[in-house]
Amino acid sequence: AKAILVDPGIDGPRRTRDLTEEDLTTLREEVDKYTTEGDLRRYVNLNIKRLKEIQCYRGRRHIMGLPVRGQGTKNNARTRKGKGVAIPGKKK
Question: Which residues of the chain have pLDDT under 50?
Answer without folding.
Answer: none
